[in-house]
Amino acid sequence: MNNKNEPVYSHQVMGEPKSFPKMLILDIPNNDYLKNTIQSGIWFLKSTNNGPEDFGLVFHLLGDDIDFELPEYVEFILKFPSSCKHVISHPKIADDTLVFKTYAVHLLKLKCIMNDSFNLPHFQKFQPSSQFTKLQSLQQFSITTSGVEMCDDDVVDETWSSLYDKEIGLPEKKEQILQNDVLPLEPMKEVKSLKDHVQIVTLGTGSALPTIHRNVLSNLVRIPYVDDETKEVKFKSILLDGGENTLGSLIRNFGHNNEEQLKQIFDELELIFLSHLHADHHLGIISVITAWLEHNKHNNRKLHLIIPWQFNKFMTEWFRLELLTQNLNADRIVYMSCEQFIQNPRPELKQLKMKEFEIKCDDGISSDTVPKIKFRPLSEESMQKIFKDLKVQLIQTTRAIHCYWAYSVSMTFCLDQKETFKLSFSGDTRPNLKFVEIGHDSDLLIHEASLEDDLIEEALAKKHTTVVEAIKVAELMNCPKVILTHFSARFSEKHTFIESNEDYEKASQKMKAYLGRTVNNIFELRHNSRFTFDDMEICYANDLMIIRYNDVNVQKAQFAAINELSTSEDSEKQKVKDEKIMLKKSEKREEKRVQRLAMNRKRKHSAEQDPNNK
Known about the structure:
With 614 residues, this protein is an alpha/beta fold. The protein is 33% helix and 19% strand. The chain contains 19 helices and 21 strands. The strands form five sheets. The protein has a seven-stranded mixed beta sheet. Strands 15-16-17-18-19-20 form a six-stranded mixed beta sheet. The longest helix is centred in the C-terminal third of the chain and has 39 residues, at 571-609. It comes from Metschnikowia bicuspidata var. bicuspidata NRRL YB-4993. Keywords: Endonuclease, Hydrolase, Metal-binding, Nuclease, tRNA processing, Zinc. It is an enzyme of class 3 (hydrolase).
């Protein structure tokens, strides 16, 4: 009723009914689902539940083995109204288009500073298809009563040339930068040692989560060796950890020229090492293994894995499902536990059935109540064969100071009959004297440096290493070259570089005093290192960086230029802002330090009062 007590009917207050075209999302993962999907008539039924409207937009999400150009599939598409738009997602028509323009510009600037250390990542210019609409990032569809309209205005339509013109604007260097888009994988022509051929590719250099400038951790190291028959220098590749989308980083970095270099990398890849079970280190490994199996399905090569035993359990269960739909042979994977290379290996924990687990969980499960399985090392004969195949002289692991079942590794490779190359990789850890021991006299150290030195309390709490600590580990190891990586998202774009021996000594003394007599204060150690800070070559890794062993030092001369990439336009305001942030960090750090020391005193007091300790 209105204010005049007159009845109000629906047709008086409602507009005309509007009818919108329907949208359908078809997900057909493989051929097993194809026949039932395209022969079903349910898509074209009109009822109260399905709605009387015609379809105006259909997304076809198709698996690799689906041929959308088959007459049967084309006939299925033609059954929809002629006005209906079809968007197809399939590797056959997927463009490797640029998505993150901010990162692309940042990398282009880095390449202008260090031209011989970066490829221009592989991507294709967006080209709309006339026959089918291809699924693209940032596509938009507007569904109105009059139909469906597609808008590609936000799709990044750039090339490296257009990005250079807009963002760099140095025409005299353009040809030099853009022509050097793919760095060679071949052995170098003039070298003093086989070690100089070693090539390190820091595919991902971030921690925890991907950011705009850094993906999570992954390192590819190409190890040279002299072929016994041809006497030519060839390469074996190893992967050290593989966070989310490691395969995507490999494709971007080596996918040029019909994936010519990518195929070479998969020909060379023979070993994957996984340091621990955090997602930012392992989430991309399965896809790399699957791609390796697909690439090498017509040969008899083996892929060796040194991984925590839990990941082998997961991998076995995963491939039971994935390989049901793929003609791949997972038996070609050679599994080795990280415990294989430790003097006193720990037993594995027995897997429990769900009911048994629930009972133990209700009773308060702990690692002490879970049955253990005695570790069974591989036979000496098997290990000798693996070492021969990998051209490895020695592999040693040690338990990292991070989480349970976390490891660091040192590997010594045979380059020829006389020369070796020792590589050490920290994984995630606090500075570790046992790692220093197994990594002593390494030729190259790849060490995490998650946090800058003023965040030492966070490093202690989360069991990570700061920059000055990582450099100190290299010094203790007598290692001449160190690559720092696994940076926190706080430093995704810039670093506070330690540029001189004076800065290093100052930072070391400050850290030594701060840590005091805590366990593993590596700055308290007395040692006779062959290398001072000025002797060492230190590189702060960036995503997709490609660097030869004899070029680790080239970044040092460019520290100032690299920092300029992220300098604020209003430097004075930024400086004031940074000072306020530093003050807050200092106050927070001191608060955490007081809490930590109080907790240590409480534990010590409790231990002294415990009669069992007397």
